Amino acid sequence: RTKSNKQHVHLTNLSLESTGTYKCEVSAEAPNFRTKSAHQDMVVVVVPESAEIVGTRPMYFVGDTVNVTCYSYKSRPSASLSWRINGQEVTPEFEKLGDYLHYEKNVRNRDMILSGNPYYGSSENKNDKLATKLNAKLKEYRPKVEKNNLETSALGLTFKVGKQYLGIGLKLECTVAIGSVYWQSFNAEIPVELREQSSVSNSWWISSSGERPTILGASSYTFMNVLSITIGVVLSYYKSLS
């Protein structure tokens, strides 16, 4: 038995094809026959099958470069991804990688429908100074189309590990969202240490390539050899004086 009536429409077994504009119309009786209508857009989504952070190391040292990628697999429409480093959001100042551009007009329009809010690019982001502070770069790629027209999204993050992470480590957090319909956040926590270095007395002569000077052609000497050489030098000295 259907649950729909003159005032309500109950839809079941929704599919991606159910996405569209739904309209209702009200007509007055005679003699005016006035008509009013209203419409609303509806988007049906397929939530991501899974998501993960790829490329992390078990540990980082100060001065290392972090190069990781967040993946959201098989959703429709493609998920929007964002990064946080120790709770601080990395602003979307994307590195342009040829044709790999994600925020096309149709994607922006889709996000507006899902969230009910207009989309703002990096120029409108109030946290622009944060990207400079973190000195991080984002790499966002065009979604990969999978079977059944599902899409996999990827967002890369690259930055150099600074001394401010000593003791507290790194917490890399990726958030996967499809408008206001779906949201999930997951993270990776990684310790940071200071790389061990040689003492000043032992390292001043090490070249930038890590090579150390060597003495070639040296022979081994015994105590009697050294004593004989010393006596010979002393006798030669006295002979020169006489």
From TrEMBL:
Keyword Cell division: no
Keywords, in A-Z order: Membrane, Transmembrane, Transmembrane helix
TM ranges: 215-238
Keyword set includes Cell cycle: no
InterPro entries in the cross-refs: Ig-like_dom, Ig-like_dom_sf, Ig-like_fold
Domain (Ig-like): residue spans on this chain: 48-89
Superkingdom of the organism of origin: Eukaryota
Name of the protein described by the UniProt record: Ig-like domain-containing protein
